[in-house]
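ok so I'm stuck.
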Amino acid sequence: MYDEPQSIMPVSLIIEDRQCMVVGGGQVALRKVESLMEAEARVTVVAPDVCEEIKELAHEGLIYCFEREFTIADVLNKYLVFAATNVEEVNAAVQVACHDRRVLCCRVDCGWRDGDFISPASFSYNDIIVSVSTGGSSLAEAKEIKNLVKAFLEEREALAAFEDE
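replied:
not stuck anymore, here's the structure
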């Protein structure tokens, strides 16, 4: 099912050393944590239950993790926040808290249009960052296009290496 695309403006945020937070502890939250870590953000996770991978990242000292319910104070001094729980009411509360404090917020649930930004399907390839967005209308289509572009770049590099031999 396709939603109407949202009018968006693509940007790339510089978040190195900035305080960012993920509210949620499941696999979607983990993907957001990994993306933030790739961008060298300072990552905090808040959730009553977190997956083992997030626990391990915290144990290694790579992120901060608080296994408890979200509170409004959690968004203070944050640059951006992902509301990535499986509870719509919690995601909405996170989004409102962020909005009231002028903190960028991305909701990863059906209320995504109430957030400030969406995360495109993206990957890094050598010195290139490729991002694909459908404006929120179809995550599956964006991922498929991303995978096609990635396969094309990998095939092109393999052919170039073969031709150089």
